[in-house]
Design a protein that fits this description.
By secondary structure, the protein is α+β, with helices and mostly antiparallel strands. It has 11 helices and 17 strands.
């Protein structure tokens, strides 16, 4: 569970809090340039630890950061794999090359998220380990060579035919066809150039699992979000705490030359730790314009109206799931999953607090500089009058 810290946490939600379009613009403007530059700097500094160890069990263990490959050199499946033995015999000599390769990252991807190079050497280790495990389990079908799901070509064509010279060349050179993996996905690899084509405005969606990296923004029309706590109002199943009441308001307007209808919505969360966390996640979703969209109303069938955008809210305090109310034991988990599918995660709460604190600190520094300039100017005028 993520707990709020700092100024924002102490403020709480006991009085009306409103998120207006101006707040959205401030967060987005800062993110477009300053945050992406900071991401590049921080992610460049993240270099994977690469190690090769031969232990007392006659096992060779190769680590690339958190990824590990272990081979029993006495296992007949290892002894019969000549290409693997060839690579294992050279890998200690290639450690420095592997470290350099690991540090060569693409800046367009770094602006959004960290990633790692998946070299031809590591790919051979990966395939070999998969096939050895299958052989040990008596699985007849071997692991097929992986394909980039974007272009549908092999990650490294005919990897089992690579010579030592080809492995070394791939480590020494940087090519747009190099293979990379996203930092939070397990076993999802792509050609670097293919992944670059998946970069949207401030975010990347993993083509395999749809995990969002960075900040995804939607097409929600301008509106307001207010929240307050009623200590005497209860959600069914949460009789020991008050209720967070969320009010959304969207005026009618015109988009792309077409009139659309606005709307007002009220939603409820229990005022407990999990409810407050979900409120903060919903605020982030609102700021990123993800909670509503313009489309067809399921209720009225009317087009060009402001409607929910796939993040379910509880619009009743009772009645259970059938009436969009409580109790609903799995609601919080479903809500967090729906927000995660739009790139809103619990860690973003702390990140947003930090961003707001940074903005406040910058504003304070600017005021100090302005006051110093005014003081200096006043002193100069005073000295001029004395002369």
């Amino acid at each position: 569970m993520v707990k709020r810290t700092g100024r924002t946490a102490r403020k709480g939600v006991n009085k009306d809090e409103q998120i207006e379009p101006q707040v959205q613009k401030r967060v987005q403007t800062r993110g477009t340039k300053e945050i992406q530059e900071e991401n590049v700097r921080k992610n460049k500094e993240k270099i994977e630890e690469i190690s090769v160890i031969k232990n007392e069990k006659n096992e060779m263990v190769i680590k690339f950061g958190k990824r590990e490959y272990k081979f029993d050199l006495q296992d007949e499946n290892v002894q019969n794999n000549k290409k693997l033995l060839q690579v294992l015999g050279k890998i200690e000599q290639w450690v420095d090359l592997l470290k350099v390769k690991s540090g060569n990252k693409n800046e367009n991807i770094l602006k959004i998220t960290d990633h790692f190079n998946f070299s031809a050497v590591e790919y051979l280790l990966y395939l070999s380990q998969e096939n050895i495990e299958r052989a040990q389990k008596k699985v007849k079908q071997m692991h097929e060579e992986e394909k980039c799901c974007i272009c549908q070509f092999e990650l490294y064509e005919k990897i089992n035919d690579f010579s030592e010279e080809q492995f070394e060349k791939q480590l020494k050179e940087n090519d747009e066809e190099d293979v990379v993996g996203l930092s939070m996905c397990d076993g999802h690899f792509f050609h670097q150039n293919c992944l670059i084509h998946c970069v949207e405005y401030k975010h990347i969606k993993c083509p395999i699992c749809s995990r969002i990296y960075g900040e995804m923004y939607g097409d929600q029309p301008d509106g307001t979000m207010k929240s307050r706590v009623d200590k005497n109002f209860r959600c069914a199943g949460y009789e020991n705490c008050g209720t967070i009441i969320i009010n959304y308001h969207f005026p009618s307007g015109i988009r792309n030359g077409k009139h659309y209808s606005g709307t007002g919505r009220t939603a409820y969360l229990p005022d407990n730790e999990e409810g407050r966390e979900c409120l903060e996640l919903l605020k982030i979703g609102f700021e990123r314009k993800l909670l509503f969209t313009i489309g067809r109303s399921v209720t009225t069938g009317q087009d060009n109206t402001t409607v929910w955008n796939g993040v379910h809210h509880k619009t009743n305090t009772s009645g259970g799931p059938a009436y969009f109310g409580y109790p609903d034991p799995t609601y919080f988990n479903r809500l967090k999953l729906e927000l995660a599918m739009k790139g809103v995660y619990p860690k973003d709460i702390q990140n947003q607090d930090q961003q707001k604190n940074d903005i406040q600190d910058n504003q304070n520094e600017q005021k100090i500089d302005q006051n110093a300039n005014i003081k200096n100017a006043t002193q100069k005028k005073g000295r001029g009058r004395k002369k």
